[in-house]
Write a structure and sequence with these properties.
The protein is of the alpha/beta class and 345 residues long. It has 2 domains: 200 residues, Quinone Oxidoreductase, Chain A, domain 1 (Alpha-Beta Complex), CATH 3.90.180.10; 137 residues, Rossmann fold, CATH 3.40.50. It is 28% helix and 23% strand. The strands form 3 sheets. Strands 3, 4, 5, 6, 7, 14 and 15 form a 7-stranded mixed beta sheet that branches. Bound molecules: zinc ion (ZN). The site of zinc ion has 10 residues, from α2.
Length: 345
């Protein structure tokens, strides 16, 4: 089968690989229909994720058809259409029993990281019964792919941890796929103001179409002053950090209102200053989380019934044969205007 393989920092190739087989009784083999590329895949390619070794097939998102199952798989059947979440869960460990699948002692984020991933014609998914989600056959597969990672990540790490309430003011720093997914799902709670801050005008335009009440290009405009104008000098009740660099986390600390929450979503590679000399008395909550995908069944219903429409997050379509071109497009988002890229397998 064809598969996109990480070959060490800066190197990848579309290779011919053996089709995966069941190795454990709880496995399923899934024939891929759609997959996509994540910002995390670019981090791996830069060499930022040393736990991902050369030779790994990348990808932790997608939709497919179950091709075979191990002897002890009971609820997932051959021929089922399934969503593959970015997090694998054994369903039995201490963390899984708390709903914290991200820290499953036998799973967590392993697909396309520590085991072969979804940017291939087939993928082996461990703990199929507790990891895969069945989907109807006649759905918009492109939209469903957004549920593997970005929608639950934006929702769990940003919206739920950010404790968004009706009438609240919300700011999202970073209008990449995750920030936009948080924007889309924040609307379940009817916040009054949703301010999106980024340096890319195209992404800010998409944010407006997805429901942002104000957008701020913080390359041209002083974001702090503008947020204070919008909020009558209070700051925002919830600010989500969806970039993962020190400057944006510091911006969050500047615009959070007293009693507010800073919900971190970004993947941080270096330490960040925390201005406790000012925030200590402001009743601030700071949250961090790796997506658990525990809200995926709920989000799946909202996408299937078109309560939310994630298609605006999809900017490009490629075939698996063109995946190197897809990577080039995705990694040059400023020029290509890429947000999420669908790979048809
Ligand atoms: Zn577990």
């Amino acid at each position: 089968m064809k598969a996109l393989v990480y070959q060490g920092p800066g190197k990848k190739a579309l290779e011919e690989r053996p089709t995966p087989v069941i190795t454990t009784a709880t496995d399923a083999i899934v024939k891929m229909i759609r997959t996509t590329i994540c910002g995390t895949d670019l981090h791996i390619l830069k060499g930022d994720v040393p736990t991902c070794l050369p030779g790994q097939i990348l990808g932790h998102e997608g939709v497919g058809i179950v091709d075979s199952v191990g002897q002890s798989v009971t609820t997932i059947k051959v021929g089922d259409y399934v969503l593959i979440p970015c997090i694998t869960a054994d369903g039995k460990c201490e963390y899984c029993k708390k709903g914290m699948y991200s820290h499953c002692v036998n799973g967590g984020w392993i697909l396309g990281h520590q085991i072969d991933g979804t940017q291939a014609e087939y993928v082996r998914v461990p703990y199929a019964d507790t990891s895969l989600y069945k989907i109807p056959r006649d759905v918009d597969y492109d939209a469903i792919v957004m549920l593997s990672d970005i929608l639950p990540t934006g929702f769990e790490c940003g919206v739920l941890n950010g404790k968004i309430q009706p009438g609240n003011t919300v700011a999202i720093v970073g209008a990449g796929p995750i920030g936009l997914a948080a924007l889309l799902t924040a609307q379940f709670y009817s916040p009054a103001e949703m301010i999106v801050i980024d340096t890319n005008d195209h992404r800010l335009e998409i944010a407006k179409r997805l429901g942002a009440t104000s957008v701020i290009n913080n390359e041209n405009t002083k974001a702090i002053e503008r947020v204070m104008e919008i909020t009558n000098g209070r700051g925002v009740d919830t600010v989500m950090e969806a970039v993962g660099v020190p400057a944006t986390f510091i911006l969050c600390q500047e615009i959070v209102a007293a009693g507010g929450t800073i919900a971190n979503i970004g993947v941080h590679g270096v330490k960040v200053d925390l201005h406790l000399e000012r925030l200590w008395s402001h009743n601030i909550t700071i949250t961090t989380r790796l997506v658990d995908t525990i809200t995926t069944p709920m989000l799946l219903k909202t996408v299937i019934t078109q309560k939310i429409n994630p298609n605006l997050l999809i900017s490009h379509h490629f075939k698996l044969d063109q995946i190197l071109e897809a990577y080039a497009t995705f990694s040059n988002a400023a020029a290509s205007k890429a947000i999420k890229i669908i790979i048809e397998v």
